[in-house]
């Protein structure tokens, strides 16, 4: 999977991970992938819902050492 941009949202509380994700997505072309790292537990449900409502595709999410990682393909 080729990542177009990495967003570090670790340490940010809601709603900042979504705000930063939205801003980062504006810099990408359709089909490009944004990788997001966050520590806010609410980010999982927030980013899943945001991606769906925005016409983007959540390709994968995982957690490693308390860091939530998401890969979202721009719609």
Please, could you describe this protein's structure?
Residues 7-31 form the UPF0033 domain. This is UPF0033 domain-containing protein. Pfam families: TusA. Belongs to the sulfur carrier protein TusA family. It comes from Aquibacillus halophilus. Helix 1 links the parallel strand 1 and strand 2. The chain starts with a strand and ends with a strand. The model has no long low-confidence stretch (mean pLDDT 97). The chain has a 4-stranded mixed sheet, with helices on one face. The chain is of the alpha+beta class. It has one domain (5-73): TusA-like domain (Translation Initiation Factor IF3, 2-Layer Sandwich). It is built from 2 helices and 4 strands; from the N terminus they run βαβαββ.
Mean pLDDT: 97
* Beta content: 25-35%
Q: Specify the number of helices.
A: 2
Approximate helicity band: 25-40%
Instruction: Identify the CATH architecture.
Output: 2-Layer Sandwich
Name of the level-1 CATH class = Alpha Beta
Which of globular, elongated, flat, extended, rod-shaped describes the shape?
A: globular
CA distance, first residue to last residue = 16 Å
**Helix/strand/pairing category:** alpha+beta
Low-confidence stretches: none
């Amino acid at each position: 999977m080729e990542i177009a941009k990495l967003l570090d949202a670790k340490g940010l509380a809601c709603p900042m991970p979504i705000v930063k994700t939205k801003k980062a997505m504006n810099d990408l072309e359709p089909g490009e992938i944004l990788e997001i790292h966050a520590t806010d537990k609410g980010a999982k449900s927030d980013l899943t819902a945001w991606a769906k409502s925005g016409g983007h595709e959540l390709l994968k999410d995982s957690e490693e050492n308390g860091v939530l990682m998401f890969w979202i393909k721009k719609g």
